[in-house]
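> example.struct
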């Protein structure tokens, strides 16, 4: 009865908002995409949030854990992997808006122990946009811990001239987040959980899931269907450490599309993350968020979220000055850990967005196909 009532209310809300897609049609579309995908990819549980003109509809499938058979809901906590980078970027934007840093600052200006190192002269913007000069996707095993992390950066030498090539990198944006929190006078986890997340109105989003929320934390599964959760590593919180729900992610998407509802420094922070700093093969790089002129073809999104884009260096074309993304633009970000897969996409000018969270890491292309189909249907 409660489920039916919620469904009826959501249908009324969608119709009242001028939606040209009834809730039942949206349910048919999402079910038709998600149910075969879960079977094909052996995904135990998955949750979708569809945002349309300020209203949200949730679609939940499967289980949060195969042993307990606990159903997935919009409150289930998922690891979102590199979608966490958008939160890190927003924290950096907030630090800039409150006068604690400038993106043009060098790393050594915020961490004296980097004095004399090559990376000390790299700008915060280069760190945040993966253009430091070839920082790798992951830390080498010997440096993948808090004790060795700074030593790794002190010894690191660039492969490319800084600012010339994009090479997607956890250590790069991870160091940016570390320095942003340092500028705020707080450890990263404290700055995120006690400053940024509350200001965004996110009450079910964490770096470290508290004990009283552990029952909501989904179990992740690897390709062999074995249980796995994210492992500790150097700058793990900054690069891939957020755990959250589709309900909170829908709120986050709405905040990104309507930042005027937030306090001024957060409005400025979100504007910084949405700003285009350079282009690569049709994609515009913001602070963590990646964007495309809208409408965007499925092929362009597939290429922009491909393994090749993540693993290979690409020559960048800097926008001088950096460009505020005010026209029709789709923002998106993928994220994965060993046992989870996430994708978020939204179009502020159309007031539409989609969040897809799953407790298995499955191909980015499959996530993009589902999201593109949903957004295309909403924009009819």
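> example.seq
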């Amino acid at each position: 009865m409660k489920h039916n009532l919620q469904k009826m209310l959501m249908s009324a809300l969608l119709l009242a908002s001028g939606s040209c897609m009834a809730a039942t049609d949206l349910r048919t579309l999402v079910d038709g995409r998600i149910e075969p995908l879960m079977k094909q990819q052996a995904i135990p549980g998955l949750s979708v949030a569809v945002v349309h003109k300020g209203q949200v509809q949730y679609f939940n499938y499967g289980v949060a854990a195969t042993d307990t058979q606990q159903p997935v809901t919009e409150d289930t906590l998922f690891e979102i992997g590199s979608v966490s980078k958008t939160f890190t970027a927003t924290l950096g934007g907030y630090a800039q808006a409150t006068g604690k840093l400038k993106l043009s600052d060098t790393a050594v200006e915020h961490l004296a122990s980097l004095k004399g190192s090559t990376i000390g002269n790299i700008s915060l913007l280069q760190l945040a946009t993966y253009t430091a000069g070839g920082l790798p996707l992951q830390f080498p095993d010997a440096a993948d811990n808090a004790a060795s992390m700074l030593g790794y950066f002190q010894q690191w030498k660039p492969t490319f001239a800084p600012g010339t090539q994009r090479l997607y990198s956890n250590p790069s944006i991870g160091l940016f987040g570390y320095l942003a929190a340092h500028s705020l006078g707080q450890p990263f986890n404290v700055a995120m959980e006690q400053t940024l997340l509350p200001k965004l109105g996110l009450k079910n989003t964490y770096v470290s899931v508290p004990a009283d929320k552990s029952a909501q934390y989904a179990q992740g599964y690897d390709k062999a269907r074995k249980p796995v959760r994210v492992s500790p590593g150097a700058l793990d919180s900054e690069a891939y450490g957020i755990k959250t729900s589709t309900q909170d992610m829908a709120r986050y998407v709405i905040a990104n599309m309507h930042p005027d509802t937030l306090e001024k420094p957060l409005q400025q922070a979100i504007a910084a993350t949405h700003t285009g700093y350079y282009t690569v093969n049709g994609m515009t790089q913001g602070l963590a968020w990646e964007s495309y002129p809208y409408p965007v073809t499925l092929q362009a999104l597939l290429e922009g979220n491909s393994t090749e884009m993540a693993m290979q260096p690409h020559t960048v074309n800097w926008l001088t000055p950096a460009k505020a993304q005010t026209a029709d633009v789709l923002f998106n970000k993928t994220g994965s850990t060993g046992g989870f897969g996430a994708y978020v996409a939204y179009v502020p000018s159309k007031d539409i967005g989609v969040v897809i969270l799953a407790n298995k890491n499955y191909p980015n292309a499959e996530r993009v196909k589902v999201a593109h189909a949903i957004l295309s249907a909403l924009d009819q």
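> remarks
DSSP finds 13 helices and 15 strands in the chain.
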